[in-house]
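Progress note, sequence design subtask.
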């Protein structure tokens, strides 16, 4: 089967939060015709004032779109948008969009289940010789800043042929797409990525706080880490020590980054996935406990690098020192 004749022109976008709104803006800049929906009427009004058609329900978006992209907070939200009252799949077994892309960070099982459900549907209008709709799970790696700059990385699970046909869509929102395998594998890759990120941030924070307690400055340790075997993104690009690096959340009281509550959510998904897979998960479990504690302590909206200050009691190191 070929997707060479499918259309990408009319793109529905559901979920216009911090990430989604910026992804949608980049699609508009790239020349795609957007139709949008969000539960937040203020956000819809903002897009409406930009001349973007808005719809009251996901189903209305589906009826007007060749492709639908969802960017939602949780598995429950995704299930509701797809299968709930007035959801994307509301209109019986016939559906207009040939491609459904979910960029939410959710559990792999939900992604696989939705893909299986969608495989039972038929397109209202045949696209080339493609008669059935396709779903891709395509969560992203990258911050709000990356979403705005269009430099996200997409981790994609599902039909590789569909991914290739929709490459221009992805590259309008991000710098790269990585094919991970069948349905649910994109979701699984995102969970594994964020698990590694959480553990590395905690490891760097723990080492830097210990160093400070032993009389070694975080700036000296960071210099050592960054030219030796401890080097990692949490040290050289997103350092958690306030005052040590400009342009990162630690330099602005841990505001404007990846919220601790979102990291806690992703670690919950990782724990559940590890249990289902029968894998050991001691570091995942410990990281989950730490981020849950941070959230319960009132730091849920602070960037996840705040563990350095609010869990390990690490100290600031002003740049001029």
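Output:
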């Amino acid at each position: 089967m070929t997707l060479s004749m499918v259309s990408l022109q009319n793109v529905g976008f559901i979920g216009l939060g911090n990430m989604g709104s910026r992804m949608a803006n980049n699609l508009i800049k790239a020349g795609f015709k957007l139709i949008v929906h969000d539960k937040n009427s203020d956000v819809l009004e903002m897009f409406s004032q930009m001349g973007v058609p808005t719809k009251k329900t996901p189903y209305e978006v589906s009826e007007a779109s060749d492709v639908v992209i969802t960017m939602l907070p949780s598995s429950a939200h995704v299930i509701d948008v797809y299968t709930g009252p007035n959801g994307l799949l509301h209109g019986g077994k016939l559906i207009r969009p040939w491609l459904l892309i979910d960029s939410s960070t959710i559990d792999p099982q939900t992604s696989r289940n939705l893909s299986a459900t969608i495989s039972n549907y038929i397109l209202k209008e045949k696209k080339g010789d493609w008669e059935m709709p396709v779903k891709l799970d395509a969560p992203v790696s990258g911050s709000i800043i990356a979403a705005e700059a269009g430099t996200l990385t997409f981790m994609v699970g599902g039909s590789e042929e569909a991914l290739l046909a929709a490459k221009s869509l992805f590259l309008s929102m991000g710098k790269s797409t990585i094919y991970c395998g069948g349905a649910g594998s994109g979701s699984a890759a995102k969970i594994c990525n964020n698990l590694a990120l959480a553990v590395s941030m905690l490891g760097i924070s723990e080492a830097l706080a210990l160093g400070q307690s032993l009389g070694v400055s975080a700036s000296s340790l960071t210099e050592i880490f960054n030219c030796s075997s401890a080097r990692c993104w949490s040290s050289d690009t997103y350092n958690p020590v306030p005052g040590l690096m400009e342009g990162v959340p630690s330099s602005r009281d841990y505001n404007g980054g990846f919220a601790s509550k979102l990291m806690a959510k992703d670690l919950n998904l990782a724990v559940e996935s590890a249990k289902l897979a029968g894998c050991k998960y001691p570091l995942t479990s410990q990281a989950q406990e730490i981020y849950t504690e941070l959230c319960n302590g009132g730091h849920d909206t602070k960037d996840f690098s705040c563990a350095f200050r609010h869990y390990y009691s690490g100290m600031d190191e002003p740049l001029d020192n």
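The domain at 10-181 is CATH 3.40.50.720 (Rossmann fold). Work on this subtask will continue into the next period as scheduled.
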